[in-house]
Amino acid sequence: xNTSVTLAGITFKNPVTTASGTFGSGMEYSEYVNLxxxxxxxxxxxxxxxxxxxPTPRVAEVYGGMLNAIGLQNPGVDMFIKRDIPFLRxxxxxxxxxxxxxxxxxxxxxxxxxxxxxxxxxxxNISCPNVKEGGIAFGQDPKCVEEITSELKKRAxxxxxxxxxxxxxxxxxxxxxxxxxxxxxxxxxxxxxxxxIDIHRRAFLLANKTxxxxxxxxxxxxxxxxxxxxxxxxxxxxxxxxxxxxxxxLEFIMAGASMxxxxxxxFINPGVTAEVVEGIEAYxxxxxxxxxxxxxxxxx
Length: 300
Description:
Blueprint: E1 5-7, E2 10-12, E3 16-18, E4 40-42, E5 59-62, E6 65-68, H1 77-88, E7 94-99, H2 104-114, E8 121-125, H3 142-155, E9 160-163, H4 171-180, E10 185-188, E11 192-195, E12 197-198, E13 203-204, E14 210-214, H5 219-232, E15 237-240, H6 246-255, E16 259-262, H7 265-268, H8 272-286
Parallel strand pairs: 3-16, 4-7, 7-8, 8-9, 9-10, 10-15, 15-16
Antiparallel strand pairs: 1-2, 5-6, 6-14, 11-14, 12-13
Helix pairs in contact: 2-3, 3-4, 4-5, 5-6, 6-8
């Protein structure tokens, strides 16, 4: 039974990774899950300098998931290179580094710093507000998506995955823009913008007013968007958004995702990623599927 998948020339032992921002760099989770069981670990966002993130409160529970407005707090690329890469290299798993920035130059800086590091792929979070364009996210303007993808491709030594925002009118158009810019793969979806109000205080629950909605509530939207993008472009897709079980993961794979990322479910069950890997294997055995590739995009 073959569970391995290949994206942009990189082969992963199975199609399961972690969703950026929900797993750190795996250190906190390594006592609950053997990281070597995972196809890859996708790290928390890494910026060119340390980011302190947004003021608190910045997390809120909502029906079917959570809102977060962490603001991509991270210690910066220097600390990531010194501490996190050596830690992850102790495990038999691939490393996907999530890259963040507020300007094209900031993204380029991180990508150049990682060029000679022992990491396998770079996932570019283009849901960051583009400071130079007045705060609209890079991923909400197809011209911007194509330009930043093209700039990063000139500098990156590793294949790049463009992480698409669902907060757009036409996700297929964004996917085509990333493909035109030279992206090697796509990941989707990032969080949906949401809000919660504390009626007793008559105030926003999050200091940032809005936050990113993740968890089971977003899954039907995410599956639809993965299917839509799989029809629109020829790039491999990492699907995510509300995956909590192997059944959830298989929906994304059948919709056209070559890999899946487990996010919010890690907060409820720190061992969930390994359970998803095992569940996919059990499904393949049950239905006599010899190769995971037979399931990718099998729903037409």
